[in-house]
Amino acid sequence: MIFGRSERGKGPVEPVTLKILVAGGFGVGKTTLVGAVSEIRPLRTEELLSEAGRPVDDTQGVEGKHTTTVAMDFGRITVRKDLVLYLFGTPGQDRFWFLWDELATGALGAVVLADTRRLEDCFAAVDYFERRSIPFVIGVNCFEGADRYPADSVRQALDLDAGVPVVLCDAREKDSVKNVLIDVVEHAAAAAARRRQPAVT
Known about the structure:
Blueprint: E1 16-24, H1 30-37, E2 46-48, E3 67-69, E4 73-80, E5 83-89, H2 100-104, E6 109-114, H3 123-131, E7 136-141, H4 151-158, E8 166-169, H5 174-196
Parallel strand pairs: 1-5, 1-6, 6-7, 7-8
Antiparallel strand pairs: 2-3, 4-5
């Protein structure tokens, strides 16, 4: 059976669908990333920031942000005729982290978005995926006015394993986001191949 092609006398084969999570700190650009690349109108669960949440929602560095994701973002992108990615953006604040386990079920891998001005905000997401052995890629969202750092400097600051890809991206640009998602799929495929290799005795 060949994905995305018709065999003689048979209809087209359904494409492979893969689930990718988009995680990171509050205001790092997760909703923007999903919206930039989704071929369908993204499902969003954003609510206005309230006075009640002001003491726990740290808006330093993202003072212009007025909404927050309270459940998830959802989008879809066809990478090839035989490969479709479903994107699930996680909520950034720790009071919504109870949703992460449900969203992570069945995920192939994840993008952890990072902002070099608030790099510590992505520590929790990195820790989450490391503990659950879910392959992930760090996407450094290049905000205007933010300092640019080499990938190796970001890797060192986050104390990442050498095999974790770190890529610069612009969450507003479709092609940039698509490249990050391809990196996730390739990284996850390589991790799966390593797990299938027999142990050396």
